[in-house]
Design goal:
By secondary structure, the chain is mostly helical. It contains 9 helices and 3 strands; from the N terminus they run αααβααββαααα.
């Protein structure tokens, strides 16, 4: 890889440097998701489906309400995406144990296999970037990304990472 472009020292708040940061976010996002986009596209699915698979895979038995909150989308929008995932037998729904109105979501074996394939490519890319950048840069990345979030998103992120790990991730630890 070529030497990374860096902002001018002590001038990181200039408009051109902030726009350059936005450019970085958009180009990195596109490049990072390219493999997943290709595999999803071949299945007639898109990024919204991927985000659902990712969060449901991270938190089996996630409620529909929790997923709505994490994604920040409308019920109608989520309904279309979840409907397609359930129809393709990638996600299973069941009623809540204590609240029968609650719908809990979990990946099916086919959904787990797809999510794992998608994550494998993303994991490889993130690992490569983390290793090339070093621990201080990774810490800076985590810090900057959290500072880009609204207070509500920061709270959700903190809650998500503080929640007990369920399902297959708990077994892997």
């Amino acid at each position: 890889m070529a030497e990374p472009i860096k902002p001018p020292a002590a001038q990181f708040l200039r408009d051109d440097v902030i726009r350059g940061g936005m450019d970085l976010l958009l180009f990195a996002h596109k490049s990072h998701l390219r493999h997943a986009d290709g595999e999803l596209g071949a299945l007639g699915l898109g990024r919204a489906h991927h985000r659902c698979l990712y969060f449901i895979g991270r938190r089996p038995d996630l409620s529909v309400g929790e997923l709505l909150s994490l994604l920040g989308v409308t019920k109608q929008s989520l309904g279309r995406v979840l409907g397609a995932l359930v129809e393709r037998e990638l996600v299973a729904q069941r009623t809540g144990d204590t609240d029968r109105r609650q719908r809990l979501l979990r990946l099916t074996p086919a959904g787990e296999a797809l999510e794992q394939r998608l994550f494998s490519g993303l994991h490889g890319n993130m690992s490569r970037a983390y290793a090339a950048s070093g621990e201080d840069a990774v810490t800076g990345y985590w810090t900057m990304m959290q500072n880009l979030m609204s207070d509500e998103a920061q709270r959700q992120f903190a809650d998500f990472h503080a929640a007990p790990v369920r399902g297959r991730e708990a077994m892997a630890q």
